C-alpha cells in the first residue's frame, strides 16, 4: 500500500514531535530531582546533573495520607459508577424502558454542565446535610463526572451483544437479572474496563469538588495536597514537582496497562451511534 | 460516517430486534410485556434516583441560590429573601462581566482552533505507517491523562518569569524575558498555551479514528492521477473528515467552556481579571474570598450553563443529523 521508503525519516520526525510534546512532563521530572539551591539558577540545568531525592522524601513525609485518600475516593467512585451505569446501560440497550430516548438525551446534556456549577449546588446541599469534608461526599460528587459517560459506553457496547445470547440464557430459565449478571457482564469486560479506567482517573484528578467540598477535612485527596504545597511553600518546587510526579503514576500505569481502552473511551465518549 | 469505537461483536441490530418479540410463550402476552416493562424499570431505577438526587437537585439548588439574596448568615439560618433577577442584574452590571465574557470566548475559540489544527496535523502524520508509530501515538495521550493540577503546576513553573525554562529558551533566541503569568498582557495567552497542550491528545485520537475510516483506495487512485500530498489532503482527507471534525470541534467547545482548574491553579484569573473567565469568576464570587457572594456566583454559573447548552444542543443536532444520513 504505502511506500515504506522514508519510513525511517518519519520515525525520526515522530520522535522529535513526541519529545517536544512531552517536554513539560520531562521538565516536571527534571525539576523534581533538582536540588533546592539550583532551582533558580540561570541557565537552568536541562538534565538532573546532581539529582537529589529530597523532593521525594518530602512526598513520603507529607503526602502519603493524601495519596491514600485519593485511592479510596478513586476506587469508591469506580464502584458507585459501575453499580449505577452497568444495569442502566443494559436496560437502555436491550430492555427498552419507557422514555429511554429522553434519558439518553438527559445524560448527554448532563455531561455539558460545568463542574463549578455542580460544585456550588453540592456545597449548599452538603452544608445542610453536614456532609462537607467527608470522603464519601466526595465520592458522590466525583461520580457525577463519570456516571453519564459510563451509561453511554455501556449502552453503546451492550447493544452490540447478539440477541441470541440473551435469548439462549432465557430459554435455559435464567431471569433478566441472572442473564445480566452471568452473561451480559462477563461479555462486557471491555466496557467495564473502559468505564472503570475513566472514572478512576477523573476522580483521582478532580480538583473542583475537592477544593470546594473538602477544603478542611482530615481526608483530603492528593490534588489538594499539591495545591496546598503551591500555596504554602512557593520555594520548594522540587517537592511540588515530586508530588506531581507521584500523582501522575496512576495515569502512567493505566496508560501502559490499558492503552487500547483509553483510545476506545475517548472515541466512544465523543462519537456514538 | 461510522467511527470505530469500543470493539463490539458484529451483527447487532437485526438479531436483537428479533429477540425482543420472541422468548417464552407460557405467560399471556400482555402480562409478559408488563413484567418486562417492570424489569426494565428496575434496571434504570437506581440511575433515575441518582440523577434526581445528584444532578437535578444540585442544579435546582444552584438556580434557587441565584434567585435569592444569600449571605453567610442566611446560609446557616436558612432564610434568604427571594430577590428575583437581582443577582443576574448585579452580575451583568459588574465591570468584570465584559472582560470575563470576552476572555471566555477568546480562551475557548483560540484553544480549539489550535488544538484542532495541531491535532489534525498529527493525526495525518500518524496515519502513515512507520516504525514506533503506535507507541509514539500512545505517548501523546499522556498530557490528557495527567491530573490537571499536575499539568498546571508544571506549566506554572516553566512559565515562571525569572527561573522558567521557557524564558530561558527565548533568551537563547535573543528574545527578552516575558512575564507570562504576572503581566496582564500575557496571562491569558499563558493559560491558553497550557490548555492547547492538554487538548491536543483528545483531538488527535478522535481525528485519527476518523482517518482510519477513509478508504485507502481513494488515496491510491489519487496518487495514480498524480495528486500531490497537499491536494490529497484538501480534496480527500479534509472533506471526508468533515463530520468527525464537526463533532470534535463542538465537543471541544463544550469542554473548553467549562475549564476552571487550569486557569485557577495557574493565575487565579489574574493579575486583576486579566485571565478570568466566567468559570473562574463564578468560583471567585462563590468561594474565592472570605465574604462569599453565593447568589451572584450562582448567577454567573447559570449563565455559563446557558451558553454550554446552546452549543450542546448544536452538538446533539449535528450528531443526530449524521445518524440520519447514515441510515
Structure, explained:
The complex is a heterodimer of chains A (273) and B (327). By secondary structure, chain A is mostly helical. Helix content of chain A is 75%, strand content 0%. Chain A is built from 14 helices and no strands. In chain A, helix 4 (64-95) packs antiparallel against helix 10 (189-205) and helix 10 packs across helix 14 (259-270). The two termini of chain A are 30 Å apart. Chain B has 327 residues and is mostly helical. Chain B is flat, with a radius of gyration of 25 Å. Chain B has helices at residues 13-21, 29-66, 72-77, 86-93, 97-126, 133-139, 142-145, 148-158, 165-172, 187-212, 216-224, 229-240, 242-258, 261-267, 278-287, 294-326. Chain B starts with 12 loop residues before the first helix and ends with a helix. Chain B is built from 16 helices and no strands. In chain B, helix 5 packs antiparallel against helix 13 (242-258). At the A-B interface, helix 1, helix 2, helix 4, helix 5 and helix 6 of A face helix 1, helix 2, helix 5, helix 6 and helix 7 of B.
**Unreliable segments of 5+ consecutive residues of chain A:** none
What series of H and E elements makes up the topology of chain A? HHHHHHHHHHHHHH
- Individual helix count of chain B: 16
Biggest beta sheet summary of chain A: none
The whole-number mean of residue pLDDT values of chain A reads 87
What percent strand of chain A?
Answer: under 5%
| Number of beta strands of chain A | 0
Outline of chain B, from the CA principal axes? Answer: flat
The chain pair forming the largest interface, with residue counts per chain, is: A-B, 120 and 114 residues
Described by the principal axes of the CA atoms, the overall outline of chain A is: globular
Based on secondary structure, the structural category of chain B is mainly alpha
Q: Structural class of chain A, please?
A: mainly alpha
Say how many strands of chain B there are: 0
How is the biggest beta sheet of chain B arranged?
none
| Unreliable residue stretches of chain B | 1-23
Helical residue percent of chain B?
over 70%
Amino acid at each position: 500500500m504505502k511506500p515504506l521508503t522514508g519510513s525511517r525519516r518519519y520515525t525520526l520526525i515522530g520522535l522529535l514531535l513526541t519529545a517536544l510534546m512531552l517536554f513539560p512532563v520531562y521538565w516536571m521530572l527534571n525539576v523534581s530531582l533538582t536540588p533546592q539551591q539550583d532551582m533558580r539558577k540561570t541557565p537552568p540545568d536541562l538534565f538532573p546533573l546532581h539529582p537529589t531525592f529530597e523532593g521525594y522524601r518530602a512526598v513520603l513525609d507529607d503526602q502519603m495520607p493524601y495519596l491514600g485518600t485519593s485511592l479510596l475516593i478513586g476506587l469508591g467512585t469506580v464502584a458507585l459508577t459501575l453499580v449505577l451505569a452497568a444495569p442502566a446501560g443494559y436496560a437502555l440497550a436491550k430492555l427498552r424502558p419507557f422514555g429511554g430516548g429522553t434519558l439518553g438525551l438527559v445524560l448527554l446534556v448532563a455531561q455539558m454542565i460545568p463542574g463549578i456549577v455542580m460544585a456550588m449546588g453540592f456545597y449548599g446541599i452538603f452544608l445542610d446535610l453536614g456532609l462537607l469534608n467527608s470522603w464519601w461526599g466526595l465520592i458522590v460528587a466525583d461520580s457525577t463526572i463519570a456516571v453519564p459517560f459510563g451509561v453511554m459506553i455501556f449502552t453503546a457496547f451492550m447493544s452490540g451483544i447478539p440477541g441470541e445470547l440473551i435469548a439462549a440464557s432465557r430459554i435455559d430459565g435464567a431471569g433478566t437479572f441472572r442473564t445480566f449478571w452471568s452473561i451480559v457482564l462477563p461479555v462486557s469486560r471491555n466496557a467495564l474496563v473502559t468505564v472503570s479506567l475513566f472514572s478512576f482517573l477523573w476522580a483521582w484528578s478532580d480538583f473542583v469538588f475537592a477544593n470546594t467540598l473538602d477544603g478542611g477535612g482530615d481526608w483530603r485527596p492528593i490534588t489538594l495536597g499539591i495545591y496546598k504545597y503551591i500555596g504554602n511553600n512557593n520555594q520548594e518546587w522540587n517537592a511540588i514537582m515530586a508530588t506531581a510526579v507521584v500523582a501522575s503514576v496512576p495515569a502512567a500505569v493505566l496508560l501502559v496497562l490499558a492503552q487500547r481502552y483509553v483510545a476506545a473511551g475517548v472515541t466512544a465518549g465523543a462519537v456514538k451511534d | 460516517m461510522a467511527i470505530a469505537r469500543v470493539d463490539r461483536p458484529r451483527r447487532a441490530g437485526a438479531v436483537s430486534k428479533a429477540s425482543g418479540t420472541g422468548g417464552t410463550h407460557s405467560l399471556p402476552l400482555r402480562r409478559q410485556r408488563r413484567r418486562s416493562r417492570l424489569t426494565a424499570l428496575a434496571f434504570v431505577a437506581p440511575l433515575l434516583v441518582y440523577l434526581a438526587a445528584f444532578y437535578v437537585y444540585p442544579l435546582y439548588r444552584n438556580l434557587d441560590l441565584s434567585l435569592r439574596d444569600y449571605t453567610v448568615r442566611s446560609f446557616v439560618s436558612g432564610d434568604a429573601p427571594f430577590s428575583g433577577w437581582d443577582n443576574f442584574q448585579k452580575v451583568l452590571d459588574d465591570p468584570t462581566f465584559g472582560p470575563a465574557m470576552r476572555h471566555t470566548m477568546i480562551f475557548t475559540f483560540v484553544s480549539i482552533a489550535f488544538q484542532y489544527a495541531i491535532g489534525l496535523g498529527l493525526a495525518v502524520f500518524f496515519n502513515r505507517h512507520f516504525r514506533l508509530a503506535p507507541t509514539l501515538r500512545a505517548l501523546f495521550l499522556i498530557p490528557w491523562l495527567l491530573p490537571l493540577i499536575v499539568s498546571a503546576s508544571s506549566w506554572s513553573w516553566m512559565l515562571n518569569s525569572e527561573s522558567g525554562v521557557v524564558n530561558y529558551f527565548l533568551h537563547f533566541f535573543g528574545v527578552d524575558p516575558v512575564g507570562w503569568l504576572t503581566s496582564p498582557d500575557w496571562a491569558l495567552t499563558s493559560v491558553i498555551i497550557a490548555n492547547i497542550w492538554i487538548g491536543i491528545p483528545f483531538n488527535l485520537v478522535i481525528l485519527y479514528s476518523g482517518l482510519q475510516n477513509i478508504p485507502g483506495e481513494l488515496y491510491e487512485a489519487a496518487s495514480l492521477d498524480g495528486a500531490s500530498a497537499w491536494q490529497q489532503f484538501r480534496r480527500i482527507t479534509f472533506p471526508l473528515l468533515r463530520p468527525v471534525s464537526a463533532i470534535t470541534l463542538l465537543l471541544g467547545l463544550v469542554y473548553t467552556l467549562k475549564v476552571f482548574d487550569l486557569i485557577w491553579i495557574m493565575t487565579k484569573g489574574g493579575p486583576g481579571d486579566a485571565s478570568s473567565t466566567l468559570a473562574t469568576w463564578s468560583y471567585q464570587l462563590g468561594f474565592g474570598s472570605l465574604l462569599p457572594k453565593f447568589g451572584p456566583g450562582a448567577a454567573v454559573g447559570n449563565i455559563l450553563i446557558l451558553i454550554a447548552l446552546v452549543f450542546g444542543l448544536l452538538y446533539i443536532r449535528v450528531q443526530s443529523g449524521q445518524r440520519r444520513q447514515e441510515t
